[in-house]
Amino acid sequence: METSDGLRTAFFVYTEARADKSGGTTNKLATILSVVLLLITNIIVALQLYWFDYGDGYDANDSGWCIRCLACLILCTVFVARVTVQCLYFWDRRITWEEIVVEKMGIIPASLCSLAYGCVQNRNVPIGMVDVFGFLLSLAGTAMNLIPEAKRTAWKAKPENKGKLYTGNLFQYCRRVNYTGEIIAFIGHAIICGPRYWWLINMWVAFFMGLGLVFYSVPEIEFYLQRRYGAQWETYCKQVPWKMLPGVW
């Protein structure tokens, strides 16, 4: 989305904040608060999975760790750990207060608690091969998101790469492969969190995330990268024309 000053915004991340590499006390506090909120969300999900049976109300005899609930908690914890690492070590942009309020206090808790809700509703349904597939798919999506960013961070830390655009690892196949990994991770998470119709209901997380990424996040970050890297970015776009899915888009 274009702003009044000609920049781009993706809900709570915008060009000015992405370009701000100054750090400072305020941004450090915002980062710490983001991590704390993520950890609180993970604790809430753990309590939700352990204690509550939404089908028949609370029943101490039904509470506990079923395999499905444990798998859901593992994936929630992996997500929280991944975003925490990115906040602390990978992202050098300014974290906006809009991002904290809308995402860390709204979108993320709602998404993870929704997934946990579906999981609790199906706590007594045996795990099948489709569930195993969903679990492994979520981990694969997380790796697709995290590993390219880790490689990029390590590469850009070298003095000889200052001011250069990173195009290695999975970024050589599509320009926003980390976004693709994010969507895949939540598709897998929805599958493990409930058979029958629940996985379809919880697919809302991946669906709306995909819409937000395609129509807002991708245009915003590509606008920023074009402004920052100029000719390097134009060459990269010619070499790698695909944004999120090789051969499709």
**First-last Cα distance:** 19 Å
Biggest β-sheet strands, sense, barrel: 2 strands, antiparallel
Shape: globular
Total helix count?
9
On the 0-100 scale, what is the average pLDDT?
Answer: 87
- Bin the strand percentage: under 5%
Please state the structural category: mainly alpha
Strand order of the largest sheet: 1-2
| Number of beta-strand segments | 2
Task: Give the helix proportion (percent range).
Answer: 55-70%
The Cα radius of gyration reads 19 Å
Which residues sit in consecutive blocks of at least 5 with pLDDT less than 50? Answer: 2-7, 55-61
Oligomer: single chain
Considering the chains and any ligands shown, give keywords for the structure.
249 residues, mainly alpha, two-stranded antiparallel sheet, 9 helices, 2 strands, 66% helix, 2% strand, disordered N terminus
